[in-house]
Amino acid sequence: MVVPLMNLVARYRITDGHKFPKEGAFVFAPNHYSEIDPIVMGMVSWKLGRLPRFMAKASLFKLPVAGWLLTKSGQIPVQRGGSVRGSEPVKAARQLVERGQMVVVYPEGSLTRDPELWPMRGKTGAVRVALEHGIPIVPAAHWGTQAIMPRYSKKLHLFPRKTILVKIGDPIDLAQFRGRNLDPTTLNEATAVVMDAITALLEDLRDEAAPAKRWNPSEHDQKETGRFEA
């Protein structure tokens, strides 16, 4: 349903698509700066030969039409609140390993707060899934989605047709973290490695250097989730 429309809206220039695993379970970790990013990166996954899977809020699966579509397309319900919040993504990842599927996980957790749309401080969900289950984590960056839907905008700019640049990175070597207790220190260190890889890919696409210090919402009195302008 989405593919024909998104092909009309944008052309996708994918660099190093051969680094995208053609089979087996893995975590796909891109940058995040527009609410339409999941559709864009879903298109990229589709074009590279894999059906995209996302971890979505469990409440969405209860909606009459959207819930049916999410279930039929193989998306993964995750309870985001309560005492099970931290364990739910790891439980959901077991399905991926068993079925040999890929999942898109945004390490930033929400749209970047960085005013120039550089990747901000990451959260540990992506590396936790990878380390718990011994599956690769593949970084990626994209640039141009903001021309279709700016951050927190409610308007889509469908025409003229836009160009979205995408670059796939090498699977990240997390060997130094395997065998260690997955405590906050280990997970934060591994997440920093992932965010460095994503940022480097985006620097290549934008042909400019990212800020020396990664944006940290807590240092700017910003909420971790939601629309930070509100």
UniProtKB/TrEMBL annotation:
Question: What PANTHER family does its record include?
Answer: 1-ACYL-SN-GLYCEROL-3-PHOSPHATE ACYLTRANSFERASE, POSSIBLE ACYLTRANSFERASE
Give me the ranges of the annotated region Disordered. Answer: 210-230
Recorded hits in SMART domains, A to Z, give: PlsC
In its UniProt entry, the species of origin is given as Cryobacterium arcticum
What GO terms fall under cellular component here? plasma membrane
GO molecular function list: 1-acylglycerol-3-phosphate O-acyltransferase activity
Q: Name one GO biological process term.
A: phosphatidic acid biosynthetic process
Superkingdom assignment: Bacteria
Which keywords does this chain's UniProt record carry? Acyltransferase, Transferase
Q: Which InterPro entries did the record assign?
A: Plipid/glycerol_acylTrfase
What is the protein's given name? 1-acyl-sn-glycerol-3-phosphate acyltransferase
The answer to whether keyword Membrane applies is no
Where would I find the Phospholipid/glycerol acyltransferase domain in this sequence? 26-145
The protein's matches in Pfam families, at most eight in alphabetical order, are given as: Acyltransferase (PF01553)
